[in-house]
Write a structure and sequence with these properties.
- The structure is a single chain.
- By secondary structure, the chain is mainly beta.
- The protein is 4% helix and 45% strand.
- The protein has one helix and 14 strands; from the N terminus they run E-H-E-E-E-E-E-E-E-E-E-E-E-E-E.
- The strands form five sheets. Strands 11-10-13-14 form a four-stranded antiparallel beta sheet, with no helix packed on it.
- A hairpin with a 4-residue loop joins strand 3 and strand 4.
- It starts with 18 loop residues before the first strand and ends with a strand.
Length: 201
């Protein structure tokens, strides 16, 4: 074991980036009630916030691993607040994000539309047998959302129609498919993105 301050082996890594990790509150409640094991809930999204921090990175003498402090959510205004502690010597900063609800396509707080096309990680993942795939449409465009197996065979077409700008989602029922790894791809004009998902029956 190295000498202090390098004896804290549980924090060893080759890089440090700050992220917000989003979980379904119902899954966390199920852990608290003993209906799920602590390792079972899977995040449905992550947001890398390293580039917006005042003082990103790691600093042993300042114990900067604790630099992100309290988090709270204002449901009425749809705003997520994250404290960056000791960002400037002894001062702290409050970072604010505007949140929208993909599941109902209702924007929370101020009205907004996406400024870029994107494809989210499916939730839940792993899943059995249904999961939800969300995507953002920045301009009026034909959207094609398809699922493929590991051999590249198309096993499902979830979406194939024109969409106006907005936040959307599509449910995928894999009840007739075998367990394993699958890929889903969205095409929106010149934008194309593919992600992986795991069906675990």
């Amino acid at each position: 074991v190295p000498d202090p301050p390098y004896d804290d082996r549980g924090w060893w890594c080759d890089s440090v980036r700050a992220q917000i990790i989003f979980y379904n509150p119902a899954d966390l409640a199920a852990v608290a009630e003993g209906r799920l094991e602590p390792w079972q809930p899977q995040p449905y999204a992550t947001l890398d916030i390293n580039d917006v921090l005042y003082d990103p990175g790691f600093d042993f003498p300042r114990y900067k691993r604790w630099s992100l402090g309290a988090v709270c959510f204002d449901e009425q205004l749809g705003r997520l607040f994250v404290i960056e502690r000791r960002a400037d010597e002894d001062k702290s900063l409050v970072h604010v994000w505007q949140i929208h609800d993909r599941s109902t396509d209702v924007k929370m707080g101020a009205e907004s539309t996406p400024n870029a096309f994107s494809l989210a990680q499916n939730y839940p993942n792993p899943f059995n047998p249904t999961t939800t795939i969300a995507f953002d449409v920045a301009d009026p465009v034909q959207v094609e959302l398809s699922v493929f197996d590991t051999l590249g065979r198309r096993v499902a077409v979830l979406v194939n129609q024109k969409y106006e700008p907005g936040y959307y989602s599509s449910k995928f029922d894999a009840g007739q498919l075998a367990s394993g790894l699958y890929f889903y791809r969205v095409r929106m004009g010149d934008f194309q993105q593919t992600r992986k998902m795991l069906l675990a029956k």
